[in-house]
Design goal:
Phosphorylase Kinase, domain 1; 4 domains; 8-stranded mixed β-sheet; 5-stranded antiparallel β-sheet; 20 strands
Length: about 750
């Protein structure tokens, strides 16, 4: 179905003209710049031309829809507002512009965008109502008719200082809009879809708080990009083309299968990997970069990267040549935390960006809640400053009280020098005032004491996640605000013992630190035993671990090994000590299998064939590259805290969920044979995975997400999956498939 040019002047019942299909190669080398929304689409590589069009014929859509006005046009697509006579409502209709001659590939791309968007059912993604062809085979789709302004228009209004925008769109509200965009993209990523053209002009903000991400024309499944094996795209022919802000750069390319695709993005927002023209390097973190660019513009009211020509903008993008938000817009008083978040998301190297959109969202929430963000690399002083900010009243009262005390004492001193009588009077006045201030200070101290448990609770959560350094920083903050917190000092003693700072622990227990000593005789006996030791020898490790158990401090054992194994050691004495403690902590294994081998600067650890083994605390802190834990029970793999792990073997264990190993983002080899795994939908969390073994797993479901692992080279599955569509797709991509009944 097509549309004519009337800009709202044509009568509602006048039929829309039809368009002839032809000239399949006309746009093959076009560079398209749109004044509004760019609409050029990724071809669905799983379908041949004309596949999937059966059932889309809709008779005569003119009987159902009547056009009222043209809303927008750009690229190949026009958007009309139409009356839907069946539902008696106004909807938006997208169709190919009548001035464009559309090829079969163009129609397939048009339908691909419609179907892809229709399958993204999220409150912040525009809903698709209908997809069809008219009697002449011309495609159209209908969707929600959105009312509002684009985020780009809002930011421009703020940049121009228009009061109607300043009154409605504070930074807090803009962050709320941004989070809704992030939620939409995070959802799309779970479906394997990358947007690839995120920018403020592709976000519409309604009058009632509704936010929608638009223009999924460049979006594609991650698997489609991985199938491209051609040369990098050259933008050379348009290097010196002038570029207006917000225009989208697109280019067709040929895949090995000779099916046309489109790649691109918007200069100023597109990532370095897009600017370098390498589809194989594009990933979910490409969208993370563009979200960072959008946040940058929300903070500064300016596009991150500007230039006179395409060439200049792309070169700056690849170099990461743009000023920090605070320097771009110093008058905006941008919080350092938000600036750090935007810069981390826009890191030139994808590995330095947020791992996923969910991590970006968590950091924004941390900022909103008044806590330090990951992007800031927070120190103790950062945590303290934020704590002060969260409790301004208490801190203000403390400051005011100190100021009053200082003023009174100064006045008293001057009065004493003037006359004894005046001095005595001032002293009485000071005593009276100090008594009043003592009441206030008692209140302030009580308020500060209420703050400390917040950080103890945060510390407890960090302990559960084995984030020992962060937990210790949270504890120090709690004690800074309530130095008489007996529970905190007891935890501090335990931490010091585990770090082999025995003298410092004994100092606290003896009451020599200036605060009441915690009462715990068992811990005190342990501290007294080791107070004169500066450092344990490897032969003393097992004895100390036994003492921790006897002192009811077994939960501190992972912390002890975390710090122990991070210091330089002699493997000839350290590993026998670790083996001894593994036996102690896993008494069901009378004969423990434990082997270790150097692996570059890291270690290959073999604890396999220990059926009763589940406590692997002695391995905490070790830089392990290869871990074989096959034929063990259910070891807590969160104890492996270091990021070096590349190969993990868990065959014949009781592992039930992949979430238990989510933190191993650098895995290349994963053996899950004969485990309790049923669902592998989050296998995409391991982007570097090359080999995966799922043999012997009963009731296993292969998720489409497996296709998204672009580096996968070998897959072992039960024989029952010979005709599985996911396996067939992987085989066609060149993945080696091994079928096994074991």
């Amino acid at each position: 179905m097509s549309s004519s040019e009337d800009n709202g002047k044509r009568g509602a019942n006048k039929p829309l003209p039809f368009r002839e299909i032809g000239n399949a190669n006309l746009f093959a080398d076009d560079i398209v710049f749109s004044d509004t929304e760019k609409i050029l689409f990724e071809e669905d590589l799983h379908k041949q031309p004309n596949d999937g069009r059966k059932g889309l014929m809709d008779g005569n859509p003119k009987e159902r829809y009547s056009p009222t006005k043209k809303l927008n046009e750009g690229g190949m697509k026009a958007i009309w507002e139409v009356d839907d006579h069946r539902t008696a409502r106004k909807v938006a209709m997208a169709l190919i512009q009548e001035s464009k001659i559309a090829s079969e590939e163009d129609i397939d791309s048009f339908l691909y965008e419609a179907r892809l968007t229709a399958n993204l059912q999220h409150p912040n993604i525009i809903p698709i109502y209908d997809i069809a062809l008219d009697e002449n085979g011309n495609p159209y789709f209908t969707m929600k008719a959105l009312k509002g302004q684009t985020l780009g228009e809002i930011i421009k209004g703020l940049r121009d200082g228009k009061e109607e925008f300043s009154a409605r769109f504070s930074r807090t509200r803009l962050l709320a809009v941004f989070l809704k965009v992030c939620n939409a993209i995070d959802y799309a990523h779970t479906k394997g879809v990358i947007h690839l053209d995120l920018k403020p002009s592709n976000v519409i903000v309604g009058d009632f708080g509704d936010v929608h991400v638009l223009d999924w024309g460049l979006s594609t499944l991650i698997t489609h990009l991985s199938e491209y094996d051609g040369a990098e795209i050259s933008w050379h022919s348009i290097d010196d083309v002038s570029l207006e802000n917000g225009q989208t750069l697109t280019r067709y390319l040929e895949s090995s299968a000779k099916r046309r695709k489109i790649v691109g993005g918007t200069p100023g927002y597109m990532s370095p990997e897009q600017a370098q023209g390498s589809p194989s390097d594009i990933d979910f973190q490409t969208d993370v970069y563009m979200l960072g660019a959008m946040l940058y513009e929300i903070l500064t009211y300016h596009c991150p990267i500007k230039g006179e020509t395409v060439k200049e903008v792309l070169q700056k993008t690849v170099r990461g040549d743009f000023p920090p938000p605070g320097k771009r817009a110093p008058k905006q008083k941008i919080p350092p935390a938000l600036s750090a978040i935007a810069l981390k998301a826009m890191a030139t190297d994808p590995e330095e960006r947020y791992l996923n959109v969910a991590a970006l969202i968590r950091d924004i929430h941390q900022y909103q809640d008044g806590f330090a963000t990951i992007a800031e690399n927070p120190t103790f002083f950062t945590h303290t400053a934020l704590l002060v900010k969260r409790h301004k009243l208490a801190v203000s009262l403390i400051a005011a009280s100190l100021a009053v005390i200082g003023a009174i004492l100064a006045q008293s001193f001057r009065s004493i020098k003037a006359s004894e009588k005046t001095a005595l009077a001032a002293k009485d006045l000071a005593t009276e005032r100090l008594a009043e201030l003592k009441v206030k200070n008692d209140y302030i101290a009580a308020t500060a004491a209420k703050v400390a448990p917040d950080y103890l609770a945060l510390m407890a959560q960090q302990e559960k996640e084995y984030r020992f350094i962060a937990a210790e920083e949270s504890l120090d903050t709690a004690l800074a605000f309530d130095p008489d917190l007996a529970e905190g000092w007891l935890l501090k003693i335990k931490m010091l013992l585990c770090r082999q700072k025995f003298a410092a622990a004994w100092n606290i227990l003896s009451g020599n630190h200036g605060h009441p000593a915690p009462k715990n005789e068992i811990v005190k006996l342990l501290a007294r035993k080791y107070r004169d030791k500066s450092e344990l020898t490897d032969t003393e490790i097992a004895g100390f671990v036994q003492d921790l158990k006897s002192a009811d401090m077994e939960e501190e054992i992972p912390r002890f090994f975390y710090h122990l194994n991070k210091t330089p050691f002699d493997p000839q004495t350290r590993f026998p000590a670790l083996e001894q403690t593994l036996k102690m902590l896993n008494p069901e294994n009378s004969e423990l299998n434990f082997k270790w081998t150097p692996f570059g600067e890291n270690w290959l650890i073999d604890i396999g064939n220990n059926p009763g083994l589940d406590n692997i605390a002695p391995l905490a802190g070790l830089p392990i590259a290869v871990l074989n834990a096959s034929n063990t029970r259910a070891p807590d793999l969160n104890l492996i805290t270091e990021p070096e792990l590349r190969e993990l073997r868990l065959r014949n264990t009781q592992l039930t969920h992949l979430f238990d190993i989510d933190h191993f983002q650098n895995l290349e080899v994963l053996d899950l044979g004969n485990t309790q795994i049923r669902n592998i939908s989050n296998i995409v969390k391991y982007p570097k995975l090359k080999s995966l073994d799922l043999s012997g797993n009963q009731n296993l479901t292969l998720s489409q997400q497996l296709i998204w692992n672009r580096n996968l080279k070998m897959l072992t599955v039960p024989d029952t999956f010979r005709n599985d569509s996911v396996v067939k797709t992987l085989a066609q991509r060149g993945v080696i498939i091994i079928y096994s009944d074991n």
